[in-house]
Amino acid sequence: MASHHQGGADLLSRIALNDNKAGMEGLDRDKINKIILETSKGSKFYENELKKEQQVNQRIEKMMEQKARITKEQLKQAQAEVDKLTCELERSRELGRVIVHVDMDAFYAAVEMRDCPELKDKPMAVGSMSMLSTSNYHARRFGVRAAMPGFIAKKLCPNLVIVPTNFDKYRAVSAQVREIFSEYDPHFMPMSLDEAYLDITEHLEQRKHWPETMRTYHICDAKTGNDADRSAAESERDELSPVLFEDSPSSSPSLSGADGKAEVFGTSAEEAVREMRFRIEQKTSLTASAGIAPNMMLAKVCSDKNKPNGQYRIPPERQVVMEFMKDLPVRKVSGVGKVTEKMLAALGIVNCDQLSQQMALLSLLFSGTSWHNFLHISLGLGSTCIERDSERKSMSTERTFGEMSDAEEQYSLCRDLCHDLAQDLQREGLKGKTVTLKLKNVKFEVKTRAFTLQYAVCTEEEIFAAAKDLLKVEIDSVSPQPLKLRLMGVRVSGFISAEDKKPLQRSIMGFLQKDGSDSGSFTQCAGSVLKAQEDSDGASFLKPQSTEMKVPSVSEQKSKSKGTQQQSFFQRAQLKRLQQQEQEQMSVMAAKSLSNTNSGTDTTSYFLTCPVCNTEMKDVNLTAFNNHIDECLKGSAVDNEPTHLDAPKEQEELNSKPPASSSESRALKSSSHDPSCNEEKPSTSISVPLVETDEDGDFKTPFFSHRTKINGKRSVISKKKMPVCESSCKASLTTTHNLEAVTEMSSDSKGSSLTCPVCSQPQSTDDLALFNRHVDMCLNQEVLLEFRESHPPVGHSDEPALKSVRGQQGSSPLPPSKKIKVLSTKHTIDKFFKSNAGQKV
DNA sequence: GGGGGAAGGACCA
DNA sequence: TTCCTGGTCCTTCCCCC
């Protein structure tokens, strides 16, 4: 606590040499640290580290204040709780499993040295001038280590050879090693390319009964990389694997007693692991270190004990485990990093014995999760169950670059990242609901901004739609200053479960009977209509929130009924800003040509299944598919559906668009067509090519696109087609504006009509106010509830939206128009917050 | 008070 | 001149139910 205010000294704990790594013992730490410090000083990175260090110091100071307030009584109580839990944990201690942690020695560097023998005697590292992935043991003597920038490493060791990474090669070697692992534990858990946990309990059980021949391995010339063939009688032992590390405790302990022809391995755990390491070396010419213990935590620590090219075992006896833990520095334990280390050090805790002594105090200063973890560590407990194939939680991609201040470039990069991420997601068949944008500015300050969509996404367009809005908010927040970035990343998380992922395509009936989203849209639609009554301005008529599944913008998503109630203060502020800037954004985006990802006539062929007749259509383009569905619908069993159900559908279709900016409205007007035109025209709107369902089994993409628009053409699931004008959305990336066009045109060209979303009857739109009044009259609670009750939801995620509508209806005497308004467009949401939730802030 | 989203951060390889 | 990438988990804050 003494030196918290001396930046330089403090900073050492963050950026100075971490000699925790193998091969780092006995270095001239002071000299190395001086070089690191001098090279770093004054840089933005250094400044940021200083800031972070101060934050940690503040945390420590707070903790110490808290500690000072702890009474003896509290401590006594805490000790009792600790003792109780300790007893329970002791009782459940499991020593029966034999867990092995195998770690390849300086993996990337070793592979490069193997393939380029000239490097063997030189200090070398793998990586670049900006960052090193790993270094060989020669280089480590100079203080060169993984996660160190190359230019600093060069200062420490001017003769350092830096080799660029070659992941394909490492992956190939890793595959060879994993093949061997799987013979000892078919369910082994790979942690990275060079590391894995194995549970060899079963293997040892069988091994006991194995004859010697099954445990005999002949020695190959490691250089050739041949398999160590169990049955090969003659095999030369000309040369062992290259000695990668001259300070290796024993280059190949397994062979110290070998007679040069073959090695017979015993049946014990040590022998099995020695055999495994021997085979790895024979196969890859690379050495591995291993730890053997009753649980994963201990095995991990053990594998580090005799690194490189060694192994260590903790036998399954409580006393031995406790003895081993006693002197172990807490930092050696996986999960204890530099921050935790420093916080514990402030409490006088450096090794696990001290950790154990101070547990009561820790239980009062740290969260339950944290101190339970500390307790486990101090007792030498860890997981005894190797869980393989645990489900991935997120997927991301990020890029670091030189300063980037140009917004256009940033959007473009963002799109690139979304493109890459979409490919990765699709390769693994994943779809997630949360899109997170990560930004690091030139000051090394990291920001993440996330948005959770109402459905899972995996395409570039879908991800970009959300990411670019998040980016825009950040760009605008510093405007007119440019956002100066050095890193951008995009992540998708909140994956839908494998169950939900099954690509089920529902029948048209299933679709029509489905659930809350329709009703939700219905109410939203109605709300929009009602909203239009308030706006005497014809241009803002019908501004429903988007149900467009293709590329809804964040702002559109945010205005979903469910979402409105979950807006955080930040979100509300963000939403407001988004709204204010929507108009500008659209013109900016248009100007920047970021919207024309799919301009021109779509000639792409797809394999699609008609949702009406279930016919599989090969090599069909979207327009033809669209036409097919239209034809199908004309003669389909939609007759079974009460007529009034179709109308909301229609209206939902039409409402599947966000509000247009006035400039776009003008654009729409100027490009106005005959409202009944149905011909296909190129569109700038993005078509989504896959036939899938979302997590709720809802139709996604083409079919939904069909419902909204495919390749510029809007089709409506109804026997009555709505007038459509397709070339109306030139300006927008994320939105289509057909309804706007319809209404624009409807009001422009006398005599056109719109179908009432409630009663399905075509209504003249010559007078919008009249039309609105008609809808208002049609729209009443009975209709809504009747609709709901005759079409119960089937567990759809949008159901809460309806519940909230009902709830409000039930609890409030407001007329339907008022109630629904709450769920309507984003333009009303702002007002809603001001008048309702906004008051709470 | 619990659940869940968002943001940030620790930690790992 | 130059300090990564991709992942998980935890904590804190906030809102809603």
SSE diagram, text form:
Layout: H1 7-15, H2 29-40, H3 44-68, H4 72-91, E1 99-104, H5 107-115, E2 124-127, E3 132-135, H6 137-140, H7 150-156, E4 161-163, H8 167-184, E5 189-192, E6 195-199, H9 201-207, E7 216-218, E8 262-264, H10 269-284, E9 288-293, H11 296-305, E10 311-313, H12 318-326, H13 338-346, H14 352-357, H15 359-365, H16 368-378, E11 394-404, H17 407-427, E12 432-441, E13 446-457, H18 460-478, E14 485-495, H19 498-501, H20 508-513, H21 516-534, H22 554-558, H23 561-565, H24 569-591, E15 606-609, E16 616-620, H25 622-634, H26 643-655, H27 662-670, H28 701-708, H29 738-748, E17 753-755, E18 762-764, H30 768-778, H31 781-790, H32 799-811, H33 816-821, H34 826-835
The structure holds a DNA duplex (13 and 17 nucleotides).
Summarize this structure as a short list of keywords or feature phrases:
single chain; about 850 residues; alpha+beta; DNA polymerase, domain 1; 5-stranded mixed sheet; 4-stranded antiparallel sheet; 18 strands; disordered N terminus; disordered C terminus; DNA-binding
Low-confidence stretches: 1-9, 222-258, 498-618, 628-841
Kindly provide the name of the CATH class of the domain at 99-109 and 166-313.
Alpha Beta
State the separation between the terminal residues, measured CA to CA: 39 Å
Shape: globular
CATH level-two architecture of the domain at 99-109 and 166-313: 2-Layer Sandwich
- Bin the strand percentage: 5-15%
Strand order, main sheet: write it out: 5-6-1-9-10
- Helix-strand category: alpha+beta
Count of distinct strands: 18
Task: Give a short account of the largest sheet.
Answer: 5 strands, mixed
- The CATH topology label of the domain at 99-109 and 166-313 is Alpha-Beta Plaits
Name the CATH superfamily classification of the domain at 99-109 and 166-313.
Answer: Reverse transcriptase/Diguanylate cyclase domain
Helix proportion range? 40-55%
pLDDT average, as an integer?
63
Q: Rg to the nearest angstrom?
A: 33 Å
Work out the helix count.
Answer: 34
